[in-house]
Amino acid sequence: MDLDVFVNAHRIEWDRLDHLLHRGRKLTGAEADELVDLYQRTATHLSLIQSSAPDPLLTGRLTQLVARARSTVTGTRRASWRDAAHFLTAGFPAAVYRSRHWWIPTAVLSALLAALMGWWIGTHPEVQSAIAAPEDLRRLTSPGGEYETYYSSHPAASFAAQVWTNNAQAAAMCLVLGAFLCVPVIWILFVNVLNLAVGIGLMSSAGRLDTFLGLILPHGLLELTAVFVAAGTGLRLGWTVIDPGPHTRRTALAQQGRAAIGMAIGLALVLFVSGAIEGFVTPSGLPTWARIGIGIAAELAFLAYVYLLGGRAARAGDAGDIAAAERSAELPVAA
Fold first, then answer.
1. Is residue 92 within 8 Å of 268, Cβ to Cβ?
2. What backbone torsions phi and psi does residue 77 show, to the nearest 5 degrees?
3. Chain-wide mean pLDDT for the chain?
4. Residue 324's pLDDT is what?
5. Would you give the DSSP letter of residue 80?
């Protein structure tokens, strides 16, 4: 496309649109119809320039012009409680449900790797000695040791807040850094699996694996599920960079990125629940079976939430993205 010829052919339309936008609410009916028509044409012009002959200055001008026209045509939309309710009952669970083919394999492979590495550490004293000195290992694994006192080392409320903040940051990093070809996500996931495997291996070598699982499972089921969902979504985002599918790479990344932002908010709420369990239930005096039962109940509630509400919303076409009317227009691409 000859950009100079294209600009000369359509400059009058863009200037006319800019003039109508400056008129504000003083437009006649015919002028309002003309503004809508010019807005649609200019949006198409912008898409053509972006895909065929990107020019930073012209793209910037038309982007601003289209945004102003869109705001005038559609009006300013304010978030409401209805939006929040839709996000919690449809958007977020639908996004989790639709990404299940990524986070479920991630969870299964991570659990198997943690178990395998835990067995290797637990059955090889030379590996244990490479982790820490014998007296340090005893301090970690003995009754009343650091693995047990960790969960009651701070007041429950502040400990829950700290855990929630750390886990939410890890989940957000998985979601955001997934665009870098998945590599940072795999590293974050490996670090989490390694920490879990070390705990399993050291406590099993001391004959106290049951105690360790009794401390981990109440909050760990929901917490790890949230981390796996974040990691799976991050991997999906990274794969979109490699293979955007039937959309342009920019459009596919925008769609997956918007869903990932929503996932970060939703997973922060899920991790708030797991952090509360870790702060108040895990170090409590409840019997082990009761603490683990609470963790299993929280995990089953989350899975039911995803598969029942999320599955229904996904089948209805909800992808966890913003409404179609609020997305940027895009040109069709060849199959």
1. no
2. -100, 130
3. 84
4. 46
5. -
CA 275, distance to chain mean position in Å, is 18
In this prediction, residues 231-235 reach a mean pLDDT of 88
- Which tokens go with 312? 């229904």
- Sign for the pseudo-dihedral over CA of 87, 88, 89, 90: positive
Q: What is the pLDDT of residue 115?
A: 95
CA distances from residue 129 to 59, 132, 143, 205, 296 in whole angstroms, order as listed? 61, 5, 20, 12, 34
Q: Which two tokens stand for residue 181?
A: 């070809």
pLDDT at 96: 93
d(CA 16, CA 21): 9
Please name the residues in contact with 73: beta carbons below 8 A apart, sequence gap of 6 or more: 35, 36, 39
- Number of H-type helices and E-type strands within the chain: 15, 0
Report, in angstroms and rounded to the nearest whole number, the Rg of the chain calculated over CA atoms.
26
Global confidence as pTM: 0.70
94 neighbors 319 (Cβ within 8 angstroms): yes
Residue 168: phi, psi to the nearest 5? -65, -35
Dihedral in degrees, nearest 10, Cα atoms 40, 45, 46, 50: 150
- Min mean pLDDT across 44-48, 172-176, 210-214 is at 172-176
Which of 224, 221, 227, 236 is CA-nearest to residue 319? 236
Helix (H, G, I), strand (E, B) or coil at 325: helix
- Inter-residue contact 143 to 210 (CB < 8 Å): no
Q: Say which amino acid occupies 216.
A: I
Q: Are 82 and 48 in contact (CB under 8 A)?
A: no
Q: Which of 222, 20, 229, 190 is nearest to 104 (CA)?
A: 229
**Start-to-end C-alpha separation, the chain:** 22
Instruction: Write the DSSP assignment of 173-234 as a string of letters.
Output: HHHHHTTTTTHHHHHHHHHHHHHHHHHHHHHHHTT-HHHHHHHHHHHHHHHHHHHHHHHHHH
224 contacts: CB under 8 Å, gap ≥ 6: 107, 110, 192, 196
